[in-house]
Structure formats: C-alpha cells, structure tokens
Design goal:
Length: 716
C-alpha cells in the first residue's frame, strides 16, 4: 500500500454474476497494467453465497462463489484485491425487521432509495452492529488484501434523519431536539451541522475498529470526496481529512465530469483540473496513500458510454502527476461486458507508461513553493447552502490563474499550518479563507514575519470556525487593512443594470504595483463585480487598484460615471500591498477576483492573480515554463532529480475528441550554487535534450508534447 499503483474499481451488478468470465476479466486487467482493483463483495450486492439473512445476495449467483473465484485468479497473477462493502443501503428484509436501522423522515417514514432498498442511517444498527457479522463472514472466508467501505457507509443522507438513534444522540450531545427544517438563519442548524460532521468522523473510527477487531493486520479504507464536489461533501457531512488520518488509504472520487439535468435539459460541468486539485490537496495533508477514482463512463447519467479517450488519458494523468494513484471505475462489470470499449486504449497507454517508469513516481514529493490554503470550516459554515458560489469558486479561480501561468502549487489545509509544513513555501494564498482560528492566524503571522508572502481575498479571517462574524479581520494587523463593512461593489444595484471596474490609480504602476500590473499595459481598468469588503488601508501600504464609480450599462448614450458620485470621497481600495520589516509581503484583494475570473475567465483577471502570487514570492519560483495556458504542469522531486510533469489540455471544447500537440515548450530550472543539471530527457523516449545555462538557471526545450510526458532533470 506504500507503493505507487494503477487500479480499477469494478461495480459488479446483480446480472453480471450470471455469466461473469473471471479469467477474461483478470486477463484484461493484466493487459491494462493493473496492480490492484476493488470490487463489490458484500452489502446491497453480495457476490458470494452468504449465510447472513440481511445481506442482499445476487439472485443470479445460483450458489456460485464469484468473489472467491475473482480473488484466487487475481492473486495467481500478483494483483492485489480490495473487497468493497457498501453499507449505505438497507435491504427490505432488514428494514422490515429493524426499521431503526434506516434513515427516517419526520413522520417516521423510512427513506426508500429504490423499491426494496432503504437509506441506512450511520447511527443505526446495520452500520453500527450488523457490519461486524458482514466483515466477519467475508474475512473468515477470503484472503483479501484490504477492506474498503463505500461512501454511504459513514456519510449521512442529505436530508435530516429523524430516526430514534439520531433523535437520541442529538439530544444527548447538544441538549436540543433535531431542527425541523434546514436553514442557516436558525442557529440550531449550525449546531446540527457540527454534530453531523462529528458523527460521520466517529463512523470512520468505528469501521476501522470493526475490521481490526476481526483481523488486526487487515488494512481498511473508505471512499470519499474533497471540496471539488461540495454538494456531496456538505450534503453527506464528509470530512476526508479526518478519514485520511484514520484509514490505511483513502479513495477520493473525481467522477462527475458533467451532470445532465433531464428536467431542464442543461448540464453543469466539473473542472477539467479536478483530478489535479484533488491529488494536490490530499497528498499535501496526509501521508496515507491516496487513490483517486475517475469514471470510465460519461457521467452523469450515462454509464454505458465511454469517456472520450483523448480526454480520459489527460484526466487520469493529472492524478499520477501530482503524487496520487489513478483508479478507474468500471460501473457495470468487467471490460468484456461494456458496450463501448473505446476508452480502454487510453487507460492501457497511460498505465503502461506509469508501470514502465515506476521508479520516477515512487517516493516523489511536490517541488512547489506556493500553497493555496483550504478550510473545511469555511466550506461548511461560511459556504452554507451555496458552498460552491461562496467559497469553491474563489479557490478555483486562483487554481486556474496559476495553471495558466505555469506556477506549481499545492493545496493545504488549515489543519497543517505548522512550522515544519509552512517552511516548504514562499507564498500562502488565502482565497476567501473566511473561517480562521486564533492559532491558525498566528501561524500565518509568523510565516510573514519570517519573510513569507501572503495573498488574501475578501472576507479572509472575518469569521470564527463556526461561521460567526467578527467585528474585524483577525489578520487585520498582518494585511494592513481595517474592515468597515461587506457590501455590493455597486452603490445601488436596484437602480438598473450597471457596470463597475477596478481602476488603476495614478501611482498604481509605480513601486510594488508595477509587478502586480505586469503585462497589463495599455488599459486603466479591469472588470469588477460582486461584493467587496469596504476597507481602509494603512499608511505603510500601497493601493494600485481602487473601485470605480458604478454606472449604467443601458441606455448607451448615458453610460458614464455620475460625476457627483465619482467625486464623493475617496474610492474604495481593491488591492492593498504591504512589505513587512522582515521582508514578508502581503497582498489583499477586497473583492473576490478568483470567483469572478472562474465565472468569467477574462485573461487580465487571471494575469492579475498570478502576478500577485509571483510578487509575494519575490519572483522566486522553482520552475518557469513557456507554453500555452492549456499546458498544465506540476513539479515533483526525488533525491538528485527534478521532474516537470507536462499535461497537454489543448483539445478545444470539451469533451476532447483529439489533442493538438504542443511544440518547442521552454523549461527553465533555477538551482542553487552547488547544483547543476547533468542531463535532461523525456520519459517517453529517454533521449538527451540540449541544456544551456545562464547564471544558475538551466534551460532546455521540449520538442513535442502529445498528451502527457515527464521532463526529467538529473542533478549533480
């Protein structure tokens, strides 16, 4: 489990048990360079003849021990096998005999998922007690390499569960009865959210204890999701960081590329860089092996059409390029039963590349010196019922800006704001990091006092960890601004459809502002929108950007600022820069430029954010790449090596049907005085590339990048 791997998860349906070709399945996995896989063993689909009354055995088994056949055949060729148990659904017989095992509505009605399957409550006896019998029977029969629990085995149903277990636990823990409705205006809802999070964390511990009480040497893991899918994370009260601290490994999903809504005929798209985001975050907050699972199919709702191969390969490559192990979900049985096998060629190519170059992935570490800081408390208690809009979009705008500028970065948690972690970085980016504790704020102050850089936006540090607003920023002294109020950037939006801008001040292009506005010549304004924090800037700061007076969009003949309003008082500071006595730098944006640039990907906005990060780093970045914005990079290190992972996302509108090769991509690597590059080459062909040096900056050019490759610098 400590090695880099290449895997699959196989959802075996009832019907697959009828004629499952085990040997062909294993042969296909071997051909695709697979080192491990997981598959449904027990739960609402049981692939072996169980003696337990409350497991739903597949009616197509007819006495066949399919699970035993699969495990034996895999082990015969050296492939590791994880047995998955899904406790999220309670079979009808169990629900009939033990209704308290199920999630319940306020009137006591059981929450039915499908005819014959009911939603399990994490506090009910099915997940708390009966799981011991399920795990005991499986481990008593089979030589599994790991036990994996599905995400429904510890997360909550999205609606409030009013079963007797939840009612009693909530009353005992908080002294309150369960809330009657969802709503952040009710203080009880905040209490309920914290309670659900705590109960879900406890479930992970309890499941681990169940497995280890039966077999102390058996690893266990769960399935979860990060902040990239906040509807699932918040809805199920999942804390993947706590899960990683308990489990022997963590599977994290990046499956939903697009979600098609049949009712509206519209689709919402997930970020193409979601796999990189998830791998960056998980590998930086945990030493636990991270397995990131993506769909083979076109999600959602189509499970039988393959993802376009060109996009599938670069989607999965992002996982390996950022320290995690790729895993593909074959929903609906082994490869042979898939009606659309076109996607398997992309997986075979990538997994073959990873297997052939295993030594370059094993034990690698991130070489980034920039970190975006994420907070689960901000996602839940500040994001409230709109976590994506109120929080995640701000993070993703910065991610995209750094991708475009080819600046390597990590994503770390507020839970790891310690000296031994922060010492790796020159810059911390705080994208609307609203919920912050005193200890976390003090760690950031120490980082700046020691010479580090910080870029913060909007309401960063304005709330405590429970989402209660403070009167002032906790980092007010560090950022050099004083909070006044949060308001719209438009003075009176009810007066009509208006426009507003970030205006470059008279002295904005002088001093420190020159770096922030680099490559933004020829304009005096940048687009602006959304809410801002009205602040006053300290005397030791510079303010290169202020808020323009808002003015009407229509009618065009009257579309200009109101002179009276424009001259009334000083304009609001939008960007505040400060250089601290110890050399540290802080840049504060009063609005949400990340969310704006994510929603409206105007190049100037991305350039502004990337410039701010580069300025905070005093332009000391670990690698420089010259290429289009559709080239994604990451920097990984091993002793005596720097490895620049190059992922070509130049494919036009999604889904990619083909990729346009990139040529003559320049890469520069600054090194210390006692280091030098002895050789540079691509893993795809191992042919040495010409290297030049200017000072201590070593340069080479990559002739072509088709989809994914790794540029290796050997150091001496």
């Amino acid at each position: 489990m400590q090695r880099r791997n290449r895997g699959f998860h196989v959802t075996i349906r009832d019907v697959d048990c009828q004629d499952f070709d085990v040997q062909r399945f294993i042969d296909d996995l071997v051909a695709m360079h697979t080192s491990f896989f997981s598959f449904f063993v027990g739960g609402y689909v049981t692939t072996y003849p169980t003696d337990l009354p409350y497991q739903r055995e597949s009616p197509y088994l007819e006495g066949r021990d399919l699970a035993g056949e699969i495990i034996a055949a895999a082990h015969a060729v050296g492939i590791k096998v994880l047995g998955m148990i899904d406790l999220g659904q309670v079979p009808a017989a169990a629900a009939r005999d033990h209704p308290d095992w199920c999630a319940q509505a306020r009137d006591g009605t059981l929450v039915e998922r499908l005819p014959g399957l009911y939603a399990a409550c994490p506090l009910g006896g099915y997940q708390r007690d009966y799981v011991r019998e399920i795990v005991g029977e499986i481990l008593g029969r089979y030589d599994l390499d790991c036990v994996k629990f599905g995400g429904g085995s510890f997360g909550f149903p999205s609606a409030i569960c009013y079963c007797p277990n939840c009612r009693g636990s909530f009353l005992e823990t908080t002294g309150h009865t369960l809330p009657e409705h969802e709503g952040w205006d009710d203080p009880l809802w905040r209490t309920y959210t914290a309670w659900r999070l705590d109960q879900a964390r406890r479930r992970v511990h309890q499941l681990g204890e169940v497995v280890q009480s039966i077999d102390p040497q058996m690893p266990f893991m769960g399935n979860s999701v990060c902040f990239g899918d906040p509807r699932w994370t918040v809805g199920a009260a999942l804390d993947v960081e706590s899960q990683a601290a308990v489990a022997d490994a963590v599977q994290v999903e990046v499956q939903t590329r697009a979600r098609y809504d049949e009712a509206t005929g519209e689709a919402t798209w997930q970020s193409l860089s979601w796999p990189a985001e998830t791998a960056r975050f998980m590998t930086s907050i945990s030493d636990t092996p991270i397995w990131v699972v993506a769909s083979y199919f076109l999600a959602w709702p189509w499970r039988r059409s393959a993802m376009a191969p060109a996009e599938q390969k670069v989607y999965l490559a992002q996982i390996a390029a950022n320290g995690a192990d790729p895993m593909v979900n074959l929903s609906g049985g082994p490869p042979i039963v898939h009606e659309d096998p076109r996607g398997f060629s992309a997986i075979r190519e990538l997994y073959g590349f990873l297997e052939a170059n295993q030594a370059y992935y094993q034990g690698d570490n991130s070489g980034a010196n920039v970190a975006l800081v994420y907070s689960l408390e901000t996602l839940f208690f500040h994001g409230r019922d709109e976590p994506e809009k109120r929080y995640v979009q701000e993070i993703r705008g910065f991610e995209q800006a750094l991708h475009n500028a080819h600046i390597p970065f990590d994503i770390i948690s507020t839970r790891v704001l310690r000296d031994n972690v922060l010492s790796r970085y020159r810059v911390l980016v705080l994208p609307n990091l609203a919920c912050l504790t005193e200890a976390e704020a003090e760690a950031i102050r120490k980082f700046v006092a020691a010479g580090g850089g910080v870029v913060a936006t909007f309401e960063t540090s304005l709330y405590d960890r429970e989402g209660i607003r403070r009167r002032a920023f906790l980092l007010e002294d560090c950022l050099g601004v004083r909070y006044v109020e949060t308001r719209s950037s438009l003075a009176s939006p009810e007066e009509g459809y208006k426009q507003v801008y970030m205006e470059i001040t008279r002295d904005g292009r002088r001093g420190e502002g020159a770096a922030i506005l680099a490559e933004l010549d020829g304009t005096t304004v940048l687009p602006m929108g959304g809410d801002i924090c009205a602040v006053s800037a300290g005397s030791e700061t510079e303010v290169p950007l202020t808020l323009s007076a808002p003015f009407l969009v229509f009618p065009e003949g009257l579309s200009y600022p109101d002179p009276i309003h424009s001259s009334a008082g000083d304009p609001d500071p939008l960007t505040v820069l400060r250089i601290h006595p110890g050399g540290g730098r802080t840049g504060y944006f009063a609005g949400r430029p990340g969310a704006l640039s994510w929603t409206v990907p105007y190049p100037d906005l991305h350039r502004l954010l990337a410039n701010a990060v580069s300025w905070a780093a005093t332009d000391q970045l670990p690698v420089r790449v010259t290429g289009p914005t559709t080239l994604q990079i990451s920097l990984r290190t091993q002793p005596g090596r720097r490895m620049v992972h190059l992922i070509n996302l130049t494919g036009g509108p999604r889904f990619f049907r083909a990729l346009i090769p990139l040529r003559d991509v320049g890469v520069s690597l600054p090194l210390g005085a006692d280091e030098c590059v002895t050789r540079a080459y691509l893993l795809s062909d191992r042919v040495s590339l010409p290297v030049t040096v200017q000072g201590q900056v070593w340069q080479t050019s990559v002739p072509e990048i088709k989809d994914y490759d790794v540029l290796v610098f050997e150091l001496g």
